[in-house]
Design goal:
Radius of gyration: 27 Å
Structural class: alpha+beta
Strand order of the largest sheet: 18-17-31-30-33-28-25
Largest sheet: 7 strands, mixed
Strand content: 15-25%
Distance between the termini: 56 Å
Length: 778
């Protein structure tokens, strides 16, 4: 039964950010804050819901006993997809799979859903076993399907048992999809309360003044509203008609004190709590997209020849395909045709889209608007599966940054907003990205950078959004500063394990060596229910938190079968007619060779200073000279109105410069309205130009294969800000793009002397990294 408001409010939850409104506090409308607002919502999600569910008290049952160090048991575990010589990968995978051992008690007995995580701490009002979320459900489906198909074998769960558990989970999923208290438009609420034995949606994180005025009359209603604010239960915003709810230690049935004392009679108290503690249907795009992709991959896993003809597996496949079909109205609701992007989420109870209040008090709707995001692949799948316009991907801007390795070589990387490996690698690489040459190169770059940074700073894992071990903090502020877009300070001493899973897909040999080098520390993280979240290198302490999404994401990445599952799904008989595989090929299609200097282009320069700017254009060069040049800009404009495709290309900039110049920004501007008009995040490459003297230097930027680069009209090189001006003598001798093909050479460095194969500072060995050789640090 559902707890009454008074019963729910009698507990004392910890004070935390409540994101159930989908709102980030104090957000401006500029480009820098839109992604941060989105991140504030996503990264605070776990703590907010933990706080909300803390009202309900701990779940029944006691966590199983744990052991801090376990040795792999090769006799009882079997991993056909992992080479026998990768002993440390196999040991870590062995341990991660213990998370699904029934003895661990991490699956809800009623629904078959996984719980959010291991930790259940009444003293800190922290109850990860009291709720679940969609990404965790999706990963559990995938892993159970892997076990049912025989892609991994464990001693505590037979193939038949895995299939039975999967059938139960999928039946619950279909039931909840039809429940209007848990879904809207076929999309589920992001978090499901499991505590009462009956799945429930979250408590609201916001309150409206009008219902109080209607329930108690204008005078008394306004007095109650003011008292709630005075006691810190609510924080009014804007003109005061709406407020955020803060369920802190002094919130609830037993705390009608101070300004609330006049309203402590039982009837008034119950009516107030009824208005505050409403359950709401909040639909988040990203996690529903994760679940949709997991449903497709689960179908693909169950198309394995070993289980394809099993009647239980066949029924599960049918149910999941129906589940996907029934999501169509929800995704249509979350598509903004005017902007060409997905909305971040939808409060179906209030019929209001997620967002935040702007500087002028107006409601700013949030969108999925950045390419280097953990939801990149799920959003692409949803777009193709439901026949939505490719604008959802085309209108995702991105940034690139350079990173200098310890040996002096330089690589270019897609820049995650917070510098988190999770935002580049996601929780898995399953949309055939490793088979696409440009993406393979970019993913190898980021893994090489992560390994380099970890080696440099003694990290036994990667920097990624995670629990930090500082109280119950979960944050997206963990990342590599050099490649982050955000200029806010990064947390750089918290190493987590879960993105090693997708990294292993990209660089198996390198990850095995990394695990071997760090195994003395990593052994401390292993328990009888899987590995802990990570390790704090400053305090030398294990971070004793564990979540389903991270643990099973690690396991699925190490198994390395999810891309095969998606390919099977795309190639299934019923989907071939829909052309999904062909549509995916079009998304990843590389552009043709393009010469942006000597081809059909206009080239011109300008600056903000008062001195003369001298330009000279020859057949194969463009030279800019000036004595006091301020904020130089050089535009390379493609003459054809449709622009040129740089998708999946290697963009080369060759130049000579009399002095070092930086920072330098290369703007890749599409044909059509400008980003300022469309509110699309600009696509930019951040770099610098060295002093070359008479020699030439060449920068090589691998660009992702994405529709957003299919119609580039201008490439604009800009310097600055430099208000006082400086002398400039810059000659560009090459600006072109060639498609990155499987046979395209991979250089140790992407900053090279133009007359050589690479700078002499990069004599790194080339080691096996997947199917091709690539330079990485041991």
């Amino acid at each position: 039964m559902t707890a009454s408001p008074s019963e729910a409010a009698k507990s004392r939850p910890m004070d935390s950010i409540d994101i159930t409104t989908g709102r980030a506090p104090e957000q401006a409308e500029d480009e820098a804050n839109r992604p941060r607002a989105r991140r504030a919502v996503a990264c605070a999600a776990v703590l907010a819901v933990v706080s909300m569910l803390g009202l309900l008290g701990p779940a029944a049952g006691t966590p199983a006993d744990e052991s801090d160090r376990l040795k792999p048991d090769e006799a009882s575990f079997r991993f056909p997809t992992v080479p026998p010589e990768h002993e440390h990968v196999r040991a870590l995978l062995d341990n991660a799979l213990r998370y699904v051992d029934p003895a661990a008690g991490l699956f809800d007995k009623v629904s078959g859903y996984p719980v959010e995580g291991w930790n259940q701490d009444p003293e800190r009002q922290f109850f990860l076993r009291s709720f679940t979320q969609l990404t965790a459900i999706g990963h559990s489906m995938e892993l159970l399907a892997c076990l049912a198909a025989g892609e991994a074998e464990v001693p505590f769960l037979s193939r038949e048992e895995a299939l039975t558990r999967l059938a139960k989970l999928v039946a619950s999923l279909r039931q909840d999809q039809r429940d209007p208290k848990l879904s809207a438009g076929g999309l589920l609420v992001n978090f499901l309360d499991l505590n009462s034995g009956q799945r429930q949606s979250p408590l609201t994180g916001s309150a409206d003044r009008e219902p109080f005025l209607a329930a108690f009359g204008p005078e008394k209603g306004q007095a109650i509203w003011a008292a709630l604010a005075a006691e810190g239960w609510i924080t009014p915003r804007g003109d005061g008609r709406e407020a955020d709810i803060t369920r802190g230690e002094r919130y609830g049935y037993d705390h009608f004190d101070g300004d609330l004392a006049p309203f402590r009679d039982e009837t008034t108290r119950q009516r107030i709590l009824t208005l505050l503690d409403r359950r709401v249907v909040l639909v988040v795009f990203g996690d529903n997209a994760n679940l949709s992709a997991s449903a497709a991959k689960t179908i693909g896993a169950l198309l394995h020849s070993s289980v394809k003809d099993d009647p239980v597996a066949a029924k599960i496949r049918r149910e999941l395909e129906c589940f996907l079909d029934d999501q169509a109205p929800g995704y249509a609701r979350l598509y903004d045709a005017q902007v060409g992007q997905f909305y971040f989420g939808w409060d179906a109870t209030r019929d209001r889209l997620f967002g935040w209040e702007g500087l002028q008090g107006q409601w700013v709707t949030g969108h999925m608007d950045y390419l280097v995001n953990e939801f990149r692949a799920p959003a692409t799948f949803v777009t193709l599966r439901f026949g939505l316009p490719l604008a959802t991907i085309e209108h995702l801007g991105f940034k690139m940054k350079s990173y200098r390795l310890r040996d002096g070589c330089e690589l270019h990387a897609l820049a995650p907003w917070e510098g988190s490996s999770f935002q580049v690698l996601g929780l898995g690489l399953w949309l055939t990205e490793p088979d696409r040459p440009s993406w393979r190169r970019l993913l190898r770059n980021v893994v090489a950078i992560e390994l380099d940074y970890a080696k440099r700073h003694g990290l036994p894992g990667f920097l990624s959004e995670s629990y930090t071990g500082r109280g119950v903090q979960y944050t997206g502020d963990v990342g590599i500063p050099e490649i982050a877009v955000s200029l806010s300070p990064r947390i750089t001493d918290i190493a987590s394990l879960y993105t090693l899973g997708p990294a292993y897909t990209v660089a198996p040999e390198a990850i095995e060596r990394f695990l071997a080098a760090n195994w003395p520390v990593l052994q401390q993280l292993l328990t009888d229910h899987g590995p802990w979240e990570g390790y704090n290198v400053s305090t030398r302490e294990v971070i004793r938190f564990q979540t389903t999404a991270h643990t099973l994401g690690l396991a699925l990445g190490l198994l390395g079968t999810t891309s095969d599952h998606m390919e099977r799904y795309l190639a299934a008989a019923g989907l071939a007619a829909a052309g999904l595989a062909a549509a995916l090929d079009r998304v990843f299609a590389p552009g043709p060779p393009a010469d942006l200097l000597s081809g059909p282009t206009q080239v011109f320069a300008w600056h903000a200073g008062q001195s003369d700017l001298r330009t000279t254009r020859a057949a194969e060069s463009f030279r800019v000279q000036g004595d006091r040049v301020a904020n130089l800009g050089v535009a390379f404009v493609w003459n054809r109105p449709e622009g040129v495709s740089l998708s999946g290309g290697l963009l080369r900039l060759r130049y000579r410069s009399a002095i070092p110049l930086g920072p330098v920004v290369l703007d890749l501007k599409p044909a059509g309205p400008t980003p300022e008009v469309t509110r699309i995040i600009p696509t930019q490459i951040f770099t610098y130009l060295a002093k070359t003297g008479d020699r030439q230097e060449e920068l090589r930027f691998p660009l992702p294969a994405t529709p957003g680069l299919a119609r580039i009209k201008e490439v604009v090189l800009s310097l600055g800000p430099e208000p006082s001006g400086r002398p400039i003598d810059l000659t560009v001798t090459c600006l072109d793009s060639t498609p990155i093909l499987p046979q395209t050479a991979l250089e140790p460095s992407e900053r090279v002397q133009a007359d050589s194969d690479g700078p002499p500072c990069c004599p790194r060995p080339r080691v096996a990294l997947g199917a091709r050789n690539y330079p990485v640090q041991p």
